[in-house]
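hey can u run this one w/ pyridoxal-5'-phosphate bound, need the structure tokens asap thx
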Amino acid sequence: MTAPFDFAPLLAPGTPPPAVKWSGFPKYNFIGGHNDAKHVPVEALIAAATNVLKREGATLATYGLNSGPLGYRPLRDFLAGKLKGHAGIECSADEILITSGSMQGLDLVNSLLLTKGDTVLIERESYGGALTKLTRIGANVIGVPLDDEGLNLDLLRQKLEELKQRGVKPKYIYTIPTVQNPTGAIMGEARRRELLKLAAEHGVMIFEDECYSDLVWSGTRPMSLYALAGGEGVVHIGSFSKSIAPALRVGYLVAKWEVLSRILALKQDAGSGALEQMVLAEFCTKHFAQHVPKLRQALKMKLQTLREALAEQFGTSAEFGDPPGGIYLWIKLPDNVDTVKLGQAALAAGVSLNPGPEWSTDKDRARCRLRLCFANPEPDTIRKGVSVLAEVCRREFGVPLRSSNVEKR
Ligand SMILES: Cc1ncc(COP(=O)(O)O)c(C=O)c1O
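ok here u go:
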């Protein structure tokens, strides 16, 4: 028998710990950015795939189809139109790069700009994936507190001044201004303009991440930062993960060609998956505008179910807002609850949740907070899952004392 080869000594420095093996989804799945299974437009995607493959399938013979390295041209044309109508962004299809999910957009911008020790400003509560990537790079990540409208600009100004005095120039300000992850805040237009002014005063780039902007319940959203800045000093990323399906792995990055050409030089994967791009372009040009409101409606109802279930099971022990869109609810539990420990105990009972510290730069403050994604479980599963979570929380931390208005001892 061949002796096992020990490759541990060969690992590059900074290699993350090994991944754990996947053992299936838990019964009550409240984690990640999973979407509503009933609203994946399967029939229309089948028709789109058939049409586009019959018409253009032979172009799969070449890297980049017949569209070049930025990605399938009809998808970029669709996006240019959608971004103009929806977010106010005036850009040509040649200022849009199709990426393998917006996560690749994050990686590309980080590779372009960051090296170990660089400083970035980020919303104190933010996307866990972005935080993990920054930690891995060894960036100095400074969290800026949020309020109901997102980034608190007085505190941002203070941080920028402090950094300036220390001779530190942050590489970018990363923000999720439209349905913030995890708080759900939407930054109004006046604050967006002020943010751009402040960033320009300090010569700091804005990195705008917008993957939830299609999921605003009202169907309208403020103009994007990219649009308000005319694209100057802003890189914008987005995704089809939350509006169609995350498993497709299709996102996009918008930047002025001067920046995009440098990012494109770093995207050394010979193009993102072409079939997904073709099918999406075919589907979206015909159906995106009708599909999204239906998805939004379903998600809004699920949020309502989750809020009701939490109120019933946790009473005043759980504090949460009423987000104007998206797929997450950010919740505060009593101070004695450690959501990392709660997460472990809940998982053993079949409930997965995202503990607050993974979603915040202030781990102590976030210790009693958690994020629940309500998009994937069906309403009945949401109700049962929250009831199991309340039971686990009571057993481990003694709260909530009452569930369904019945005292529990
Ligand atoms: C703010 C934000 N950005 C980026 C992503 C990555 O999404 P994807 O790579 O699926 O487009 C997520 C996923 O949840 C997110 O919440």
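The chain has a mean pLDDT of 97. anyway lmk if its weird
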